[in-house]
Design a protein that fits this description.
This protein has helices spanning 9-30, 34-59, 88-94, and strands at residues 63-67, 71-76, 99-101, 106-108, 129-133, 139-140, 146-152, 155-164, 170-176, 179-180. With 181 residues, the protein is an alpha+beta fold. A hairpin with a 2-residue loop joins strand 9 and strand 10 (179-180). It starts with 8 loop residues before the first helix and ends with a strand.
Length: 181
Amino acid sequence: MSRRPGTSLVEMLIVLVLLGVITSIAAPRLRPSAKGTVEQNSRLLAQDLDLARTRAYATRALVRVVVTDTLWQSFLDQNRDTVIAENASEQTAFGPMNSRVLGQHVVFGRGLAPLIPTDTVATPPYGARRIQFGARGTTEPFGTSAVLYLTYDSDSSAVSAVEITPAANVRVWRWVDGAWL
């Protein structure tokens, strides 16, 4: 009997089993780490805060970022009456990046990390926090600062902090091996 070119069913099964074993070994390593997820969310929050500051300066209007337990939203004082009512029209006026939800398993809180070196008053980890930028792109009231801590819900050693300085600069801190970097 002559053998036809190609692969047999047994050979195909062996290849599939080997692929399954390799995938089961490699797949867990491809998932993002808790620290990476927290840092990614911190950087996104920092970028959005910087965008809010820039938007306030560019439009010469008040901008407020409201941070709740699971998301942050941005509002623009479109009628320039120096009052932000935090309504849908002010949120729409801010533009397309007006609302973001924290990533899965990321929560606001410090976890096991202490305060960052420049944080003199800990921002409470609960309830809504409001960060407002004036028409000059500075924090309102002038010279105020804030620190928002983010952590992973099942790994309290994965912590990052987003600091808004009195000059309205935004900086991301990471808790690595017992020190803030």
